[in-house]
Amino acid sequence: MSVTASAIAIIIALILFFILCYRGVGIIPCSILCAAVVALTTEGGLFGTMLGSFMTSTGNYVAQMLLPFTFGGMFAAMMTATGSSEKIGRYLISHFGIRFAPYAIMASVMLLALGGVSAFPFIIAPLAFSVLKAADLPRQIGAVIMVGCYSLVGYLVPGATNTANIIASQNYGTTLYAGAPIGITCFVIGLVLNIIYVEVMIRTYRKNGVGYTPSPTEVHTSERHDSDFPPFLLALAPILLVFILTMVLQLGFGWRSTQAAITSLLAGTIFLYLTNWNRIHESSKFAPITKGMVSGIVPLANTAIIVGFAGVVTTTSAYTAAVEALLKIDTNPYVTAVISVAAICALCADSIGGVSTFSATLGQTILGMGGVDAGALHRLTLAASTTFDSMPHNGSLNVTMGVMGLTHKDVYKNILVVQIGVTCAYTLVALLMCILFY
């Protein structure tokens, strides 16, 4: 099929995906339908592509992420079943006050992002439900904080063990701390802008009388007396254990992020059992394991199908032509990097995929030109990857919305502000710093 035909099909599919999601159609049927629209313009044809690249991309994602999702759900369910999440929420509300409660969620997300805990939505969601319920704030605020702050730390803060940072380090021959001045500057700008927007959201919801509503994804437990909650430090310890162990396994032993996440989440779950056995009031002490793992299957299925859709997009002649055109851009190499990374990430709706593709191909060409600082390019690549990756079919975005019990209609317009507006702002600053100082 021609480049034009496949390009038109991709545009139609993205618009259709967006409209259907806003109409309340589920992620799975949306993704399958839109993938089929694009598949019509591929060399393999409708059935060849749907039974080929679509199934392969979907299956590969499930194979890679089944354990992180189910173990993440298990750990989150145990945090709830033992009263640990609620205890942390109560403590934060009592010490920070209702006014600043949302920023406790922000600090928790950034902590996990620094350690490269990819299953963070499952860990943060129970805590967010507890805090937002006590503050009577809608779940949209929690979702915006989660998606906005994770990318800020994981992609900008030097030393973060996020997968994208590791990939860039390997391909550019740099360290995880590369481009530190650029990363820190962009982090500060992004954090300030995120806080400003969260404040706007809070005031708008308060003014309109919009408060907390229970999420269908919440794991409800029986009421417990104050004396039945674990002490605050004991409740916080499992999260710290996951954070520290994930970082140690990646930096100290060179484990891959997925392996580190699975091991850390399992260790956190075992710790919760050992220290809170008598606080589990389920009919079976091991019921939270089943509930938690099952709760992780739905977002896994949703995300895997979306990845399948993105996989079909990457097989089109339009995608190939776009990448080839990016290779021929004749301008400042740092400008080329920003345009290329943003475009690739938008096409595949995945920042990690964009970083991997660019740094292994065009990134090497740019470094070979001479006069380009590898550390600066490393951090610029990561900043640019967070700009237009948050398309409606972005996998991690849909995971966060899923565990928070929200749909595109509920929160996507808010996410666009922090995941495209804010990210574009600090990426432009990063570009200027590269051009002026590197």
Folded structure, characterized:
The structure is a single chain. With 438 residues, the protein is mainly α. The chain has helices at residues 3-22, 27-39, 45-81, 84-96, 101-114, 120-135, 139-156, 163-172, 180-207, 232-252, 257-276, 287-313, 317-327, 333-348, 351-360, 362-368, 374-385, 395-403, 408-437. The model has no long low-confidence stretch (mean pLDDT 86).
Q: What overall geometry do the principal axes of the alpha carbons give?
A: globular
Number of strands: 0
Distance between the termini: 43 Å
Structural class by helix and strand composition: mainly alpha
Strand content: under 5%
Low-confidence stretches: none
Q: Number of helical segments?
A: 19
What's the overall average pLDDT, rounded?
Answer: 86
- Fraction of residues in helix: over 70%
Q: What value does the Rg take, in angstroms? A: 22 Å
**Biggest sheet statistics:** none
N-to-C order of helices and strands: HHHHHHHHHHHHHHHHHHH
Write a short abstract of this structure:
The protein has 438 residues and is mostly helical. It has helices at 3-22, 27-39, 45-81, 84-96, 101-114, 120-135, 139-156, 163-172, 180-207, 232-252, 257-276, 287-313, 317-327, 333-348, 351-360, 362-368, 374-385, 395-403, 408-437. The relative contact order is 0.16.
What keywords describe this structure?
438 residues, 19 helices, mainly alpha
Topology:
Layout: H1 3-22, H2 27-39, H3 45-81, H4 84-96, H5 101-114, H6 120-135, H7 139-156, H8 163-172, H9 180-207, H10 232-252, H11 257-276, H12 287-313, H13 317-327, H14 333-348, H15 351-360, H16 362-368, H17 374-385, H18 395-403, H19 408-437
